[in-house]
Amino acid sequence: MSELEDLYREVILDHNKNPRNFAELDDADRTIEGVNPLCGDKLTLYVKLDGDRIADIGFKGTGCAISVASSSMMTERVKGATIDEGLQLFDTVHRMLAESELDETALMELGKLAALSGVREYPSRVKCASLAWHALKTALNDSTESVSTE
Amino acid sequence: MNSDMSSATPTSISERHPITNIEALRADFPILDQEVHGKPLTYLDSAASAQRPQSVIDAMVRHEQRNHANIHRGVHELSQRSTDAYEHARDLARAFVNAPSRSEIVFTRGTTESINLVAASLGRMSLSASDEVLITQMEHHSNIVPWQLICQQTGARLLAAPMTQSGELDVEAFSRKLTERTKIVAIGHVSNALGTINPVKELTAIAHDAGAIVVVDGAQAAPHLPIDVQDIDCDFYALSGHKMYGPTGIGLLYGRETLLDRMPPYQGGGEMILTVTIESSTYSELPHKFEAGTPNITGAVGLGAAIDYLATIDPKARIDHEDRLLELATAELSRIPGLRIVGTAKRKAGVLSFVFDDIHAHDLGTILDREGVAIRTGHHCAMPVMDFFCVPATARASLGLYNNADDIHRLVGGLHRALELFR
């Protein structure tokens, strides 16, 4: 597998082409705007809560394949999870994007999300992958601040 | 004159046989002879920053090794050599833009500082609440934001003349926006995002008829077109060294002497004063009034060397070479399925912006980089242009005199690789 194929894995290209949960939620409890000024990625994340559970989640926006795929995979993964599980997952994904090696437990937790690890070799692209996750963290922390990767 | 002096003040050899074999000049640029990610470097990002020929690098190294000291007022030998080198660069710059007088050439950090200087100084002097500043919709942020700042301070209004779908300025609409309220018109000579060459001479005449002062942003024109501020008849012209094969951190502002004379200083400090008491100061004559503090002396030497380098090349051969490459690139890219060229003006220089419907520019940039091809992706500091064409970003390939047909073919190869990956 060439380095490019390692970045643009099948699962990432698939989520880019057919993003899941790519919709505005009319009844969202939390709405977060995120931007990546470097490449112009723009994202709006909608989260509907039921107690401490993420009952529904959606996103709209424009961005590169990494940004769209990461947003799509994130929403697919955390829909139905608890707020604590979502925040825990943010930490693990953040470690995956920032560090080189993860232990078995972390890799098990990531599952399909480990496909995003290819961006580590592309420092200018890490922010594309992390934008949606920062938006998620902000939403789950009940902050109304907008998110910028700068 | 000793040998150190002659190295500090290179003499122009433009009158001798101008070089017409442009392809051979690539060898003058040592940085191009390398591999990136295992592929030969294909540098197509000159509109962001052009590479430097060995002669520019040598001139700067020589200056640092033999001649550097602070300029003006020094009584020792090195200070004199540095002063001579710096002021010689001013003479070369004057000739490069064909300004009537060397006192009309102000060294700055680059185009951005040049425009900020005009906006702050001329704006403070001549703008009030009922006035207007007219720019165009295709300006670089550096020809938008300085005007926003001075308009906020003075209460003047900032207007933008629209462009057409091909990325050409709508000259009729431009004329209609000019009124007796228009005090300053600021236009780009060549658009960095689209490559459009604006008819600055015609626009200047129209603006002067309306009584406005004309500022031209020449950052992208300087490396491609002959610059003649007397022929354009503009009041100010700004450019950057590093876009025209010189170093970063140095640029210039041409300003009409009668205006520069009346304008207040932009910054205060050393070099720009005659006398200082705690209460008040008197200012140096032009151009030193606008050059506060120790300037970028080595940068000026490098800019002078870049001007000397360009002067050795036949300008028509250089322009023909770049036009042919732009034509080739346009034809080759037009054949790629799903690719749309953004900016299709009849007269263009050096820039090819494009988008794919389903591949984001940022992904293209990464894929091309792995093929050794350096392009720029994003909004190119021209967000209003992106908004106009309803794209979040474009990919931009831009040309220098050292590019050749192989570079274009490698770009095309890289784009096919992207299509293959994203199929």
The residue-averaged pLDDT of chain B reads 95
Q: What's the Cα radius of gyration of chain A?
A: 14 Å
Structure class of chain B: alpha/beta
Sheet with the most strands: spatial strand order of chain A: 3-2-1-4
Number of helices of chain A: 6
CATH topology description of the largest domain in chain B: Aspartate Aminotransferase, domain 2
What number of domains of chain A?
A: 1
Major sheet details of chain A: 4 strands, mixed
CATH class of the largest domain in chain B: Alpha Beta
Main beta-sheet annotation of chain B: 7 strands, mixed
Largest interface: A-B, 22 and 18 residues
The total count of helices of chain B amounts to 14
What does this structure look like?
The complex is a heterodimer of chains A (150) and B (423). Chain A has 150 residues and is an alpha+beta fold. Helix content of chain A is 43%, strand content 19%. Chain A has a single domain (3-145), classed as Sufe protein. Chain: A (Alpha-Beta Complex). Chain A has six helices and four strands, in the order ααβββααααβ. In chain A, strands 3-2-1-4 form a four-stranded mixed sheet, covered by helices on one side. In chain A, β1 and β2 form a beta hairpin. Chain A is globular. Chain B has a seven-stranded mixed sheet, sandwiched between helices. In chain B, α4 (111-126) packs parallel to α5 and α11 (315-334) runs parallel beside α14. The radius of gyration of chain B is 22 Å and the shape is globular. The interface between A and B is medium-sized, with 22 and 18 residues.
